[in-house]
Write a sequence for this structure.
């Protein structure tokens, strides 16, 4: 690798120094990291009780009942007075699915300004699957060992070729914003996502479900862990009401 290329690689999207605590590793090179939060069960209770000019400093049993009632009767707005700020590293195809969730704020790593990552998603052999059935009712079956390995090899070959082409074009002076055209959707990207509990529950409801693609399911499960840790009563009520966002 040339000295110039090495310098540019310093600006790659990987930020290992911040991947310490509050991080759940997902897939082969991804993670969900809770960068910050302002999220408690009490925020739900106080948002609801302001209707009666009441405010609590601590949760009690009646407040837990109130949260269950709000969830069950789909009074959704008291679940909006909180926020979770996540830092996520995921393949581009997962990020595309994620960005469809309009309620929330996103900022993504830019392949115009920094060099693309050379980390690409290669599924574990047990995650290589076939697709059986009709749209809306697919089932995903494991494939034999030989096909699983061949798939992984084919992916690696394409990734290697794509990335070396990208590097060659950048080294030759082509703008990153154009050279990135060769990058496959299995390349990793990074983004920040800030979301309130109501929209987070909608995301988890749709994306941690069996009907969601397996890769985003793993991310949604990681998001749900943080949600359950910060807002345990709200999370339990969400689960008890069939995992439907209020
Ligand atoms: C299994 C699965 C398969 C999918 N397949 C496809 C596909 O093939 N093609 C495709 O394009 N997308 C697909 N999607 C994406 C899907 O259509 C939604 O865009 C995505 O799940 C975001 O959901 P949402 O709109 O509920 O979330 P958000 O955008 O976060 O919205 C949250 C809620 O706010 C309300 N809301 C937001 N915006 C509006 C609005 N403009 N008008 C009224 N209410 C609004 C709604 O109540 C909504 O549920 C798929 C999603 C899943 C889970």
């Amino acid at each position: 690798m040339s000295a110039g290329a090495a310098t540019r690689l310093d600006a790659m999207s990987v930020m290992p120094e911040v991947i310490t605590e509050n991080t759940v590793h997902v897939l082969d090179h991804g993670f969900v990291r809770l960068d910050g939060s302002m999220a408690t069960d009490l925020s739900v209770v106080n948002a609801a009780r302001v209707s009666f000019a009441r405010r609590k400093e601590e949760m009690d049993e009646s407040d837990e009942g109130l949260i269950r009632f709000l969830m069950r009767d789909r009074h959704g707005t008291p679940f909006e007075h909180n926020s979770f700020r996540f830092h996520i590293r995921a393949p581009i195809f997962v990020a595309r699915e994620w960005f469809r969730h309009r309620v929330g704020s996103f900022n993504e790593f830019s392949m115009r300004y920094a060099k693309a990552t050379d980390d690409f998603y290669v599924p574990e052999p047990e995650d290589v699957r076939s697709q059986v059935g009709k749209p809306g009712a697919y089932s995903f079956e494991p494939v034999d060992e030989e096909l699983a390995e061949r798939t992984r090899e084919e992916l690696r070959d394409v990734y290697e070729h794509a990335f070396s082409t990208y590097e060659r074009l950048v080294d030759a002076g082509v703008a990153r914003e154009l050279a990135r055209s060769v990058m496959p959707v299995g390349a990793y990207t990074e983004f920040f996502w800030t979301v309130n509990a109501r929209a987070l529950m909608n995301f988890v409801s749709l994306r941690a479900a069996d009907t969601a693609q397996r890769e985003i399911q793993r991310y949604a499960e990681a998001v749900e862990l943080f949600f359950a840790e910060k807002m345990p009563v709200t999370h339990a009520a969400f689960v008890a009401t069939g995992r439907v966002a209020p």
Remarks:
- Residues 100-103, 199, 202, 206-207, 211-212 surround flavin-adenine dinucleotide (CB under 6 Å).
- The first helix runs from residue 3 to 9.
- The first strand starts at residue 23 and ends at 26.
